[in-house]
Specification:
mainly alpha; 8 helices; binds protoporphyrin IX containing FE
Amino acid sequence: MNTKSNPSSVSIAWFVPAGLIVFSALPLLFGALRLNELITGAAITPANARFFASPLPVVVHIVSSAVFAMLGAFQFVTGDRRRWLGWHRAAGWVSVISGLLVGLTGLWMTLFYARAANSGDLLFALRLVFGSGMIVSIGLGLTTIRRRDVLGHRAWMIRAYAIGLGAATQVLTGIAESLLVSQRDALSNALFMGTAWVINLAVAEWAIRRQTAHRAHAGSAVPAPSK
Ligand code: HEM
């Protein structure tokens, strides 16, 4: 089997971050619109009053989620990471800090913002669970790499990124909800938003297992040293 890298494996390596960035563009676009509204002082309505009452958490949330989504995507470029170790480390620290800010401001807004229409107890609980899950995953991503457990580090950072990108999948499940549910309410909202996080974590576990199996296979393919 030819083990040399070929142009198609290079394009596949870049396909993942490019796809992740395109995927996260929709919530980031909504974020840019919200920032514009806050900066230009748009009319205050029941839909945006909570953001005007306390703009700092949502502004930090939107800016840090843009950094986390963009920079985090490049952390998953496969290939010879040793060549890019300096970049991976520097971008990794910025991603970790921005990811923690996303999770912490998400939790803060869940706990202290006035509830939006159709935002009930189940969504409140789901946001607490997944927001905390994102923070814990980033923490475990740091402790594993300090123990030089590269596969463990990769797995926890993929999980953190998957939870963060729930915001993008929620745009799609929100569209599905409006097509499938005639009368949207707090329960349908929570179920469709929660489904987005479950889908992302399922894809993350699939990617983690695939990578682990690939590494194990590559390891077993190395010929045993001759006696
Ligand atoms: C990279 C990932 C994320 C992106 C891109 C993102 C994006 C956004 C944006 C653009 C808003 C403003 C929504 C608006 O203007 O109506 C927002 C609000 C919010 N986000 Fe995130 N978010 C992310 C991750 C998370 C996570 C993990 C949580 C978990 C707790 C979370 C919880 C919230 C909450 C509670 C609000 C306020 C919702 C409201 O009151 O309507 N976000 N997010």
